[in-house]
Write a structure and sequence with these properties.
Keywords: Hydrolase
Largest sheet: 5 strands, antiparallel
Distance between the termini: 46 Å
Strand order of the largest sheet: 1-2-4-6-5
GO molecular function, one term: hydrolase activity
Low-confidence stretches: 165-174
Pfam family, one: HIT
Structural class: alpha+beta
CATH class: Alpha Beta
CATH superfamily: HIT-like
Strand content: 15-25%
Shape: globular
Organism: Candidatus Entotheonella gemina
Radius of gyration: 16 Å
Protein name: Diadenosine tetraphosphate hydrolase
Mean pLDDT: 90
Length: 174
């Protein structure tokens, strides 16, 4: 519904889901921080100057936009959005988080595969007015490694708040 992809569209996000690296400076498998049978999350190659290491969450199934997104898949995406936001708080020590999603050319959608941006936010970071640039994979890698480590340590129980909240010094197991 309300689709804009060309007839023979070669979807770059579908290639990421299938385990392929895109041409530099775009997504590499080393950028992937989470993948299950429903969704994939990876460090975006486009960075806003004060918000390094933001994540894109995509459905593994090709869905062009919000209008075509099944509710069950939306739930999986937004559950992961919450997990990524919590991971940012611990792995990046950010002050907050924001998410955004674009549909159709007039809504600034550039890739014809549904994707949700999740940004680490910092006091007075000016995200929506700052410039952006493409970042090489080597610069993205430390951010991906921090998030992968967080997920490796905390996803098994799906309790994404670490047992020891190092910021507050409190035990979060109860």
């Amino acid at each position: 519904m309300f689709n804009h992809a060309p007839k023979e569209y070669d979807c770059p996000f579908c290639r990421v889901v299938k385990g392929h690296d895109l041409e530099a400076p775009y997504t590499k498998q080393s950028d992937v921080v989470y993948r299950d049978s429903w969704v994939t999350a990876f460090i975006c190659a486009r960075w806003w100057e004060n918000n390094s290491g933001h994540v894109l969450i995509i459905p593994n199934q090709h869905v062009e936009n919000l209008y075509d997104l099944p509710s069950a898949l939306s739930t999986k995406i937004h559950d992961l959005e919450r997990k990524v936001a919590i991971a940012f708080k611990y792995a990046y020590a950010c002050d907050g988080t924001s998410s955004r999603q674009h549909n159709e050319p007039s809504g600034s959608q550039e890739v014809w595969h549904y994707h949700l941006h999740v940004f680490p936010r910092y006091r007075e970071d000016d995200l929506y007015r700052s410039s952006h640039r493409m970042v090489p994979a080597e610069e993205r890698l430390p951010y991906a490694e921090k998030l992968k480590a967080y997920f490796d340590d905390n996803l098994a129980s799906f309790d994404l708040v670490p047992k020891e909240d190092v910021r507050a010094g409190t035990d979060r197991t109860n």
